Amino acid sequence: MLAYYFRLAVKSFRRTPGLTALMVCAIALGIGTCVVTLTVYHAMSGNPIWWKNNVLYAVTMDSWDPSPNDAYDPDHPQLAPPQLTYRDAEYLYQSTIPRRKVIMTQLIGMLSGVPGKSVPIQAPTRATTRDFFSMFDVPFQFGGAWDAAADSGPEPVMVLSKRENEKLFGGANSVGQTILWNAHRFRIVGVLADWRPLPRFYDLTTHSPWSNPDDVYVPFQWGPTLKQLPGGNSSCWGSNAVNTYEDFIGSECVWIEMWVELSTPQAREQMQAYMDSYWATQHKAGRFARPLNNHLTNVSGWLKVNGVVTGDSRILLRLAFAFLTVCLINTVGILLAKFLRAAPTSGLRRALGASRREIFVQHLAEVAAISLGGAALGLALGVAGLGAVRTLYTNSDGYSQLAHFDPLGIAWALGLAALSTLAAGLYPAWTVGRLPPSLYLKSR
Amino acid sequence: MLKMQEVSKVYRTDLIETHALRNFSLEVKSGQFVSVSGPSGSGKTTFLNVAGLLETFDTGVYELDGGDVSRLSDDARSRMRNEKIGFIFQSFNLIPDLDIYDNVDVPLRYRRMKAAERHTRITKALELVGLASRMKHMPSQLSGGQQQRVAIARAIAGDPALILADEPTGNLDSLMARQVMDLLEQINEMGTTIVLVTHDPELARRAQRNIHIVDGLVIDSPPPYERRTTTVAFSADATSSRAG
Description:
The complex is a heterodimer of chains A (444) and B (244). Chain A has 14 helices and 10 strands. With 444 residues, chain A is α+β, with helices and mostly antiparallel strands. The model of chain A has no long low-confidence stretch (mean pLDDT 87). In chain B, helix 3 (100-109) crosses helix 4 (115-128), helix 4 (115-128) packs across helix 5 (144-157) and helix 5 runs parallel beside helix 6 (174-189). Classes of the chains: A alpha+beta (444), B alpha/beta (244). The A-B interface holds A 1, 4, 11-12, 14-15, 344-345, 348-358, 436-438, 441-442, 444 and B 45, 49, 52, 54-55, 74-75, 78-79, 81-83, 87, 89-91, 93, 95, 97-98, 106-107, 109-112, 154, 158, 166.
């Protein structure tokens, strides 16, 4: 019967092509708008490493200025700074409680290029520890992470992003090759596969959360070894002069991000106790003048406290759904008019033996066909809309990266179409099914 | 085949009540050809709607083909309409965007018949009304008489026990009307019970029995045209009867 109903739907569309087109366009506009905003919102609010949400924790301790008027974030004075001082990071990094741990910062790196293949280029570099790759499930195309000894050496080893490897080596396996990084020769031990976590949760202090990951990775200790100041965010307070690199790493400046992997709630409690104990010792020694404010924050919490999803995005999302609702209300009106105009035929079908349910399903099939058309056109509009967003925000620090159509977009569009079918079609189909069959037979 | 006992139907609005049928009693035996006449607003169409299970009624008992249908659910009434009743309307009521074949197919679709059986029945019905060669024509390509013959084919395709015809010749000229009546008589001779609502006394006389309705009551049965010798039974309080 369903095939029969769809055949009838096609005949109905041919009978009223203008109205049908109007409904398809109304649904498509609503769905297209929602697909664009949902895709952007999903990219903004998504947790790119959700499967490790409750084992990965950002480490924060409030070593900031005790003056009540000088909170790190005046808008959120209750929050600790998102980064640690060098001495705190070094201490916490010694803990054996976490299964994995990482400290990191961003450095500015200058790569020499490969003679005959590429020119010297500046590359955003992440100075980090080897667990970075395994903790964050970073995939490798060639080679792998450096070993533990390279962290402490530090040894002159590096990992390149796929993008950087393509620039330098045309995408060939460059593991084992050497290249100059800030005038020091480094050996390439690994090349990443495609990896672009959105948002860039592991470091929300440098650049936009939507920017690309770094292109070069070197052991963390190369910063202090080369006395290279961080290229990413660093925040300082107090009046002590910072004239040398030693002054900097001994200061209260915060510039290091730290993450730990704690597999069990017990490990989390132990780590928290470890941090609190350290805080108590330091507090007694005159540091950490602010109240105890140590945190281990999981990934979703980290995205939330850092305000990755803005209020504007939520408002935009609500507006998009409001627009879809308006489109659907219009569709309901058109459907009602169309179905009621064809009510005599429905009455005739009832007289000839169709039950209410059959009339209802027949009309619902027609709505489903309209919704499918709306969904298909809505998807096309959504893709076009995302393309427009990308074009508009090309120079907007990674914002354009959000506007990539993902498979979930198709699921959303189909889901919205199904909901639209229910929302827009139920009432008209139900109404026409309830009409007494005798009402129109005489007047046809 | 059709037995109504003291059936009443009242249409109510905020201001008025209209008694369309008042203690309406009537029995039609299987195989009869009955005409129903009466002035406009007398309740003929309401009777047909109630008899055809298109409308419910307020009081009384209605038995169709031996079963009480007074309190059937809407689904059961739809099934009963589909399996036991064929409708023929004054304005043909063909679906304009379906061809002739598909129009006849409509009631069979709701009976969930297999395609092959539907095809056989449609072909047979259209052959009977002389339109087998026009299967793929659209209703608008046919004359009024032809359209009514398609409607008759649709009514008989499901092999119903009862055909209810509401002024089937009302929109036709006299020649066409006679052809349609001939067809209905032919169908009746094959054993199908027919109840025909008509204003035309000449057509009414061609039925075995004539019922006259005024103000929702069966008030008399004028002398019929003696076409057949079928025995007709009436309920005692409803109308006079004719035994041929």
